[in-house]
Design brief:
By secondary structure, the protein is α/β, with parallel strands linked by helices. The protein folds into 2 domains: 236 residues, no CATH class; 104 residues, 3-Layer(aba) Sandwich (abc type-2 transporter like fold), CATH 3.40.1710.10. The protein is 65% helix and 7% strand. It has 15 helices and 4 strands. A 4-stranded mixed beta sheet has the order 2-1-3-4. Helix 3 links the parallel strand 1 and strand 2. Helix 7 runs antiparallel to helix 10 and helix 10 packs antiparallel against helix 15.
């Protein structure tokens, strides 16, 4: 045990004495947490809006006032001719154009139906769909209130939406728990994927091989620092998510940290495999990023796994981050108990055992 503790202390000293390593552990997670926490959101505010009101009536001004008063839209232009629409959208000065026709008021009073045109810049389809949804909501609310005010029957069926787990549909509540997994994976992978490669580059790995250490002792000595650093990073990010970004943590802390521990074991195993196959730190870093990019894309962090092709969905079962994303969002938002997440725990445990065993085999092969 004393030899093992000495090796662990040596690994920590190697990491903490190097200014670049210290910065990798401390700097990027804080910067990325702030950037992702505020910038990564599906909510749209202040969408550039242009108004083209050919009716210029009391009813059209009432509808326009609803758009002007909405936090989702910001009027940046008022149009008076058709030929002004294309230049505004082509140059991306506006995303949405609200066009109210000449007969808007007359049609409403005579036939109680009329058309309102919403022209949306479709180059960014996600933004276009969200902005169109906001506009549709405003127009539907105008319809209901106008019909009630004039004694007309309302629409035969009205949609009443109730969102469970996220009543206000705040996208930050969905994204920030995922950031816990993303940043924990990045830091852990970088720390472990460079550990053996650093030794080889500095010509100290051969010295380590002639010591009395056995392969499993070297493996534990390399894994424990990454585990402790990853646990510390995850704890810090969770603390910021709950107390700074006000993301609710409804589930058990024990359940959450069980998932973190199993995820760290699987990530450390992959990192040590990459490091044992690398001869330089540059190779280790490139190997880490070769794993990180597909792991994040296939985790369901930003895009649902259900929308991916079936063959890609099967590949995601090899990705430990897939299971960790489910655990994070289930514990944070749903308060899911431990027993309902066992199906997510055991695949990460198997991935960790296989990757750590492979890393130990690679160490043993190097030693003998």
């Amino acid at each position: 045990m004393s030899r093992l503790v000495a090796l662990i202390i040596k690994e920590f000293l190697t990491l903490l004495k190097d200014p670049k390593s210290r910065f990798v552990i401390i700097g990027p997670p804080i910067i990325q947490l702030v950037v992702f926490g505020y910038a990564a959101t599906f909510d749209l505010t202040n969408v550039p809006l242009a108004i083209y009101d050919e009716s210029n009536s009391e009813l059209s001004r009432e509808l326009i006032a609803r758009f002007d008063g909405s936090p989702n839209f910001q009027r940046v232009a008022t149009i008076t001719h058709d030929d002004q629409i294309s230049p505004l959208i082509d140059t991306k000065k506006v995303i949405v154009v609200l066009h109210i026709g000449r007969q808007f008021s007359r049609d409403l009073y005579q036939s109680r139906t009329t058309d309102v045109q919403v022209i949306v810049d479709g180059r960014d389809s996600n933004t276009a769909m969200i902005a169109n949804g906001y506009a549709d909501t405003i127009i539907q609310n105008f319809n209901v209130q106008w019909a009630r005010r004039n004694g007309f029957p309302g629409p035969p069926a009205r949609l009443q939406v109730r969102a469970w787990f996220n009543p206000n549909l705040v996208s930050r509540w969905f994204i920030i728990p995922g950031i816990v997994g993303l940043l924990t994976l990045v830091v852990t992978m970088i720390v472990t994927s460079l550990s053996v490669a650093r030794e080889r580059e500095q010509s100290t790995f051969d010295q380590l091989l002639v010591t009395p250490y056995r392969p499993w002792e070297i493996l534990i000595g390399k894994a424990v620092p990454g585990f402790i650093i990853g646990m510390g990073e995850a704890t810090f990010i969770i603390f910021v998510a709950v107390f700074w970004f006000q993301v609710p943590l409804l589930g058990s802390v024990i359940t959450l940290y069980t998932g973190i521990a199993l995820f760290l074991l699987s990530a450390i195993g992959v990192g040590l495999m990459i490091s044992s196959l690398s001869t330089t730190q540059q190779q280790g870093l490139l190997g880490a990023f070769m794993f990180l990019v597909p792991a994040i894309i296939l985790s369901g962090f930003a895009t649902p796994i259900a929308n991916m092709p079936s063959i890609v969905q099967k590949l995601t079962y090899l990705n430990p981050m897939r299971y960790f994303m489910i655990i994070l969002r289930s514990v944070f938002l749903e308060g899911t108990p431990f027993e309902l997440l066992i199906d997510q725990f055991w695949p990460m445990a198997i991935i960790g055992i296989v990757t750590l065993g492979t890393a130990a085999w690679l160490f043993r092969r190097r030693m003998y």
